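ok new one. same drill as before - structure tokens go in, u give me an amino acid for every spot. 321 of them this time. try not to just spam alanines like last time pls lmao
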């Protein structure tokens, strides 16, 4: 029906407003805001260098997601359910273009799309316009997930969704990520690190039955992105961030039990302690052990030759020193 796509486009949030909503959540975490904190439109507009109109649209997105409340007299506030962990794990709605991109990635991960496709095939499959399909493919190309092939074809990058690919993924990270951390000029972003620490501690405080692997994956991505962005070499940063994008795709992350989820998060905190204290050599050693343990998926290996540091730093803002 010709009217349906138009209605869908009108009901989807604009990509700029979705991104602005993400920035507002980042600001809330960075400033250590908690449930009930006021979110003044003018202050957010100044912080984000935009007018109040898009800020209001972004806040409405967050309100629809249950992260923000609004009252006629007092404006917008963080909802009672807000926490750093939930803010990082809750998925914001996609823009119309982002929704098509996400659908393409989901179908490719499920092998419903071949490794090579044409724009015409994608248009027929999703009943989408040529312009929207080309925009989605261009966005995937920017992220290194597809590339142009001869003729009118597009080739998907290999996805790390099988044991062999996952092993190669860990080998790649073991080669580059510790080097990014150890190289001269590395800088830990203090605001992001503080917000991430709060979110990880909140995650560990949850009972076992509330631990969500998707929340873990979001925090895991945030942690390793912190290392990637701190590298002084932009080529290292770009390579690691692009690989992180691949690891976010459906089916690309190995399954973990509750014991390993907790252990890995504790390892993150131990590494973060050393990063914030400026002991990057120790942080680099712990990062290598963390990646090797994650690759092996054997939690019992934590005390075989590794220093017993991984369980010592669960207190907010703490250090092992």
């Amino acid at each position: 029906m010709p009217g349906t796509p138009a209605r869908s486009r009108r009901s989807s949030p604009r990509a700029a407003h979705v991104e602005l909503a993400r920035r507002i959540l980042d600001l809330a975490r960075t400033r250590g805001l908690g449930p009930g904190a006021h979110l003044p439109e003018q202050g957010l507009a100044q912080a984000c260098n935009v007018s109040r109109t898009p800020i209001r649209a972004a806040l409405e997105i967050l309100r629809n997601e249950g992260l923000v409340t609004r009252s006629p007299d007092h404006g917008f506030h963080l909802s009672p359910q807000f926490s750093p962990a939930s803010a990082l794990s809750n998925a914001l709605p996609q823009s119309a273009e982002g929704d098509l991109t996400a659908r393409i990635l989901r179908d490719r991960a499920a092998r419903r799309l071949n490794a090579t496709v044409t724009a015409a095939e994608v248009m027929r499959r999703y009943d989408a316009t040529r312009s929207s399909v080309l925009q989605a493919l261009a966005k995937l190309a920017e992220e290194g997930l597809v590339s142009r092939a001869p003729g009118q074809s597009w080739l998907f990058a290999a996805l790390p969704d099988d044991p062999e690919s996952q092993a190669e993924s860990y080998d790649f990270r073991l080669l580059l990520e510790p080097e990014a951390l150890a190289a001269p000029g590395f800088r830990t972003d203090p605001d992001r690190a503080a917000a991430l620490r709060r979110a990880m501690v909140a995650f560990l405080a949850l009972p076992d039955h509330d631990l969500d692997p998707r929340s873990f994956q979001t925090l895991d991505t945030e942690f390793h992105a912190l290392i990637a962005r701190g590298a002084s070499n932009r080529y290292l940063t770009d390579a690691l961030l692009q690989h992180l994008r691949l690891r976010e795709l459906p089916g690309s992350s190995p399954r973990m039990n509750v014991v390993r989820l907790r252990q890995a998060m504790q390892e993150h905190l131990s590494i973060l302690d050393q990063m914030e204290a400026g002991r990057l050599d120790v942080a680099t050693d712990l990062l290598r052990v963390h990646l090797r343990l994650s690759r092996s998926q054997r939690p019992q290996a934590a005390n075989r030759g590794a220093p017993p540091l991984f369980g010592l730093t669960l207190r907010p803002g703490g250090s092992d020193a």
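The radius of gyration is 21 Å. and btw The mean pLDDT is 79.
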